[in-house]
Amino acid sequence: MTAAGRQRRETVRMQAAELFEQEIKPPEVAQRLRVSLKSAYQWHQLWRDGGREALASRGPGGSRCRLSPRCLEKLAGYLEQGPAAHGWVEDQMWTAARVATLIGRKFHVAYSVSGATRLMRRLGFNPQVPARRVAERDEQAVTAWKEATWAEVKEPGRPAEATSASRTRQASPAGRPEDAPGAGAAAPRS
After folding, report:
1. Which residues, 6 or more positions from 174, have their beta carbon under 8 angstroms from its beta carbon?
2. What is the pLDDT of residue 149?
3. HEC sequence for the chain
């Protein structure tokens, strides 16, 4: 959930607390605040047991990060070094699975692929789409090959005048000889 979504939920819960304090029943609270009846009853129970504070947010949900701030800094450094520095030389791409493996190797902490994705985004990285290019690519050799060899190998394109009309569709009346049937102005179809 986004920060804006959490803020809205917090605001609605506090509005519910105000309505409960005015002795308004959960069905009417649900209708006024446009929430489910189930939520209104759950909030009412929390409010009865612990008051307004019981409806206050306890911060973002989910589990705590299993890496310390120092380890997160180290991980960011490892990611900046690139995958080749850590044994993945076949392409220059950090995938979430590779990051999860790297975390396991370096910090002895198990992360799922989805957890590694969230951690990468938190650090300002994202799973990359690789450039379809070899890391050892020689641009001068590629340019020379294109200029010398490709022009000889490439098939010539079809000349413009060698096009044909489809057999299932009649040709335009404008392109017909004057003595051909239907050569006059195009008649609208009925």
Report:
1. 186
2. 78
3. CCHHHHHHHHHHHHHHHHHHHCCCCHHHHHHHHCCCHHHHHHHHHHHHHHHHHHCCCCCCCCCCCCCCHHHHHHHHHHHHHCHHHHCCCCCCCCCHHHHHHHHHHHHCCCCCHHHHHHHHHHCCCCCCCCCCCCCCCCHHHHHHHHHHHHHHHCCCCCCHHHCCCCCCCCCCHHHCCCCCCCCCCCCCCC
Least confident of 67-76, 142-151, 162-171: 162-171
Is the model's pLDDT at 189 over the cut of 80?
no
Upper half-sphere CA count for residue 56 (Cβ side, 13 Å): 6
What is the rounded distance in angstroms from the CA atom of residue 190 to the CA atom of residue 161?
33
Instruction: Select the more confidently predicted residue: 179 or 66.
Output: 66
17: its two tokens:
């607390």
CB count in 10 Å sphere of residue 35: 19
Answering whether pTM is above 0.70, one says no
State how far the Cα of 177 lies from the Cα of 180, in Å rounded to an integer. 5
Burial class (CB in 10 A: 0-12, 13-18, 19+), 9: middle
User: pLDDT at position 160, please?
Assistant: 58
pLDDT tens for 39-64 read 999 999 999 999 988 888 776 666 78
